[in-house]
Amino acid sequence: GPLLERDFLLHEVSRHTRVIEIMAKKRPLPLPLAKALSRGLSELLQGLTEHTPEEHRRLIQAAVQYYVENDDDEHDLESPTGLDDDAEVFVAVADALDRHDLVYEVAEHLS
Q1: Contact 13/45 with Cβ under 8 angstroms?
Q2: Is the backbone of residue 84 left (phi > 0), alpha (psi -120 to 50) or beta?
Q3: What value does the mean pLDDT take over residues 17-28?
Q4: Which residue, among 36, 44, 3, has the nearest Cα to 20 in the 3D structure?
Q5: Where are the beta strands (DSSP E) in 1-111?
Q6: How far apart are CA 111 and CA 98, in angstroms?
Q7: Are the C-beta atoms of 11 and 77 separated by less than 8 Å?
Q8: Who contacts 29 (Cβ-Cβ below 8 Å, separation ≥6)?
Q9: Rounded to a whole number, what is the largest CA-CA distance in the chain?
Q10: pLDDT value at 111 more than 80
Q11: What are phi and psi of 39, to 5 degrees?
């Protein structure tokens, strides 16, 4: 698919995190993990420049799209482990981009 604008993707990340924050008041959702994912994805997005290789942009975009899509392998809003698959995708992408600092921040929230 086409490469999407960085600002659009940043907005999508914060929108999805806000939904999880609201839902977490009513059911057991992994809010600390959602916030760590949101920070990590936002940091990857904010690091994009015109010199970022397209392959890296596509990896970051894929991780964002996986996070903001509720109905992935395990529905994000249905269970306490609903973000584990999103986190695994993020960890794989951050690892591929040598952002081990971000890997650690997200991985510490995984059981």
Answers
A1: yes
A2: alpha
A3: 94
A4: 36
A5: none
A6: 23
A7: no
A8: 20, 23, 77, 80, 82, 83
A9: 43
A10: no
A11: -60, -45
**Residue 74 confidence (pLDDT):** 76
Do residues 65 and 13 lie in contact, with contact meaning Cβ atoms separated by under 8 Å?
no
The stretch 68-93 carries a mean pLDDT of 88
pTM of this structure = 0.94
Neighbouring CB atoms inside 10 A of 100's CB total 12
41 close to 16: Cβ distance less than 8 angstroms: no
Nearest by Cα to 102 from 45, 41, 10, 40:
40
How far apart, in whole angstroms, are the C-alpha atoms of residue 78 and residue 101?
A: 29
